[in-house]
Design brief:
By secondary structure, this protein is mainly α. It is built from 8 helices and no strands. About 3% of the residues have low confidence.
Length: 215
């Protein structure tokens, strides 16, 4: 029975959390807009709200994997899960590439600001996207994470590492956007979407090639 070391759990968990959070759909655009318009901390805590939603879906994914991991040992089923994750990453990339924040510039207007509205709205935007589960399942399969063999403690460490990786993405994104906020307006967000969308599409293509190579 294969068991991962603590170091491997941490490194793979951080990688899974970071990579799964990176596709900038509506959640990413919201964090970018908040950072540009409201500042670093409000942008970051919007990302924290997204991470809370992701933490729930990470838990669901791990429970699902524990139940269906026997089926994933079938090469054809495992390949299908990886391809679904790859396809969703590609779809997120295309969606990000085509996203036009200029047409949504008035959606983030509020009459009274409350600090808790920032993580709350981040959570609400993210929680309506359960398809992220397939991204996590694909990444678990890609990194060969033997969740079904993990003790309860190892599962808790895995969940914590993935959530930490997720938070690292939002911390990094809001930090970089805040540093560049004087150089970007909504057209700058459009440019960022174009760049990130292209990167995600290339990443999906690279992932697809690796899937074919690894079988």
């Amino acid at each position: 029975m294969e068991e991962c070391s603590i170091a491997e759990i941490i490194l793979k968990g951080l990688a899974i959390g970071f990579l799964a959070a990176a596709p900038t759909g509506p959640s990413g655009v919201l964090v970018i807009q908040r950072t540009l318009n409201k500042g670093y901390w409000k942008g970051f805590f919007t990302g924290v709200g997204v991470a809370v939603s992701d933490a729930f879906y990470i838990f669901v994914t791990m429970m699902c994997l524990s139940l269906v991991m026997g089926y994933l040992e079938n090469p054809q089923i495992s390949m299908t899960v990886k391809l679904v994750g790859c396809a969703l990453l590609l779809a997120f990339g295309i969606s990000t590439l085509r996203n036009n924040p200029l047409s949504k510039s008035k959606q983030d207007v509020v009459i009274r600001e409350n600090f808790f509205q920032f993580p709350l709205t981040g959570f609400l935007v993210a929680i309506v996207n359960p398809l992220v589960i397939f991204i996590y399942m694909g990444l678990f399969a890609f990194f060969s994470f033997p969740i079904e063999n993990f003790s309860l403690g190892c599962k808790a460490e895995t969940w914590t590492a993935i959530v930490a990786g997720d938070l690292c993405w939002w911390l990094t994104l809001s930090f970089l956007i805040n540093r560049l906020r004087n150089r970007f307006d909504l057209r700058g967000i459009w440019l960022i979407n174009r760049i990130l969308g292209t990167i995600l599409i290339c990443a999906a293509a690279g992932w697809f090639v690796l899937i074919l190579i690894k079988g």
